[in-house]
Design goal:
The chain folds into two domains: 312 residues, TIM Barrel (Alpha-Beta Barrel); 61 residues. Helix 5 packs parallel to helix 6, helix 10 packs across helix 11 and helix 12 runs antiparallel to helix 15. It starts with 9 loop residues before the first strand and ends with a helix. The protein is 47% helix and 9% strand. The strands form two sheets. It has an eight-stranded parallel sheet. The chain has a two-stranded antiparallel ribbon with strand order 5-7. The radius of gyration is 23 Å and the shape is globular. With 386 residues, the protein is an alpha/beta fold. Strand 9, helix 10 and strand 10 form a beta-alpha-beta unit. Bound molecules: D-gluconic acid and manganese (II) ion (MN) (2 copies).
Length: 386
């Protein structure tokens, strides 16, 4: 049953299952896997695709000849396993050069280097088949606002995005950008902290149609937000180009847990939203196995992400087919149609009719909604007793 299929478009980054378990308090606990080994591991667990930062694949100091050899080996691993590369991205946060950000750095040389590095990384991603290019501004932020002007930061971000959109057009690449927000970590504060910020920012770009968002569960939870609502706004705007799935307890450090492992109910509403609205993009698990895991347990982690998604998808279908739940929803949304003619598209005549309509405000306030019953049915469905 819950076996991942290519059409599910489940993907993992090289940096996810390949994470050796280093954290700010301790060293790596797992040996480092090569990109080729990671592709084989992902093939074994049934993933559809593998994503990477430029330097997950090609070390930052590699020579041109080393790069070509690495890319050849990687392509061979893709051919051997049937995996594809749907998304690529740039590491603009690990190297010390980016300690004060990349596109928003106060140092023009760093900003220019970030553009150069990204153009190279775009070429690499496109060569391997990527159609989506993610921008996560890991170090685009501050610890103190004394040193950086937040308005200048917005202007610099816009200049970089416009430049890179033009680069993609100039090269004739079939590539879209997906901007990923995060409120903090590794910086004290990161600019464009939420998906909502990103959606507003995109509309100010020269080529807004090329640019959408890549919301991540953990990032919106770190900001204390309802992830499903953030994703709904992106979907409604036609801007959900990619999604990063993982899990995260509210109020904690950046945890990157297995999808659905902490907030099962919100994970259900997310999967339901994506299913109900026909999202057919990649489902990328940007998560890490517990530091206690060995590579067998890492495989269990990866399988668990996909399995939970598929189980929740089945639960969403069950929700739709559940007579009692649907009857309650029909009751909740019942409408006698009486006021339809006064609403929708404005006209002076409608407004006049609406203003003349007598409302029984007290009666409106007496009407309750059976949300307790509906929510309990949802919980019982999730607990498997319906
Ligand atoms: C994080 C981010 C990253 C990005 C990745 C792709 O919290 O570190 O989620 O994993 O998604 O850099 O751009
Ligand atoms: Mn993250
Ligand atoms: Mn992410």
């Amino acid at each position: 049953m819950y076996t991942p299929q290519p059409e599910n478009k489940f993907t993992f980054g090289l940096w996810t299952v390949g994470n050796p378990g280093r954290d700010p308090f301790g060293e790596a606990v797992r040996h480092t896997l090569s990109p080729v080994e990671i592709v084989h591991l992902l093939g074994e667990v049934g993933a559809y695709g593998v994503n990477f930062h430029d330097n997950d694949l090609v070390p930052i100091d590699a020579t041109a000849a080393q790069r070509d050899q690495i890319v050849r080996d990687f392509k061979q691993a893709l051919a051997d396993t049937g995996l594809v590369v749907p998304m690529a991205t740039t590491n603009l946060f690990s190297d010390p050069a980016f300690r004060d950000g990349a596109f928003t750095s106060n140092d023009r040389h760093v900003r220019a280097y970030a553009l150069q590095k990204t153009m190279n990384a775009i070429d690499l991603g496109v060569e391997l088949g990527a159609k989506i290019y993610v921008f996560w501004g890991g170090r685009e932020g501050t610890e103190t606002d004394a040193g950086k002007n937040p308005i200048t930061a917005i202007e610099r971000s816009r200049e970089a995005m416009n430049y890179l959109c033009e680069y993609v057009m100039d090269k004739g690449y079939d590539l879209k950008f997906a901007l990923e927000a995060k409120p903090n970590e590794p910086r004290g504060d990161i600019y464009n902290a939420t998906t909502g910020n990103m959606l507003a920012f995109i509309q100010t770009l020269d080529h807004p149609n090329m640019v959408g968002v890549n919301p991540e569960v953990a990032h919106e939870h770190m900001a204390g937000l309802n992830f499903t609502h953030q994703v709904a706004q992106a979907l409604e705007a036609g801007k959900l180009f990619h999604i990063d799935l993982n899990d995260q307890a509210f109020g904690r450090y950046d945890q990157d847990y297995r999808f659905g492992s902490v907030n099962l109910k919100s994970a259900f509403f997310l999967v339901k939203l994506l299913a109900d609205n026909g999202y057919d993009g990649n489902l990328h698990f940007d998560a890490h196995a517990y530091r206690t895991a060995d590579y067998d347990d890492v495989k269990a982690f990866a399988r668990g992400c996909m399995r939970t998604y598929l189980i929740l998808k089945e639960k969403a279908a069950q929700f739709k087919a559940d007579g009692e739940i649907q009857a309650l929803l029909a009751e909740i949304n019942s409408d006698d149609g009486e006021l339809t003619p006064f609403m929708g598209q404005y006209s002076a005549a409608k407004a006049a009719a609406l203003r003349a309509h007598p409302f029984d405000r007290a009666a409106l306030g007496r009407r309750g909604q059976p949300y307790e019953r509906l929510d309990q049915l949802t919980i019982e469905l999730l607990l498997g007793v319906r």
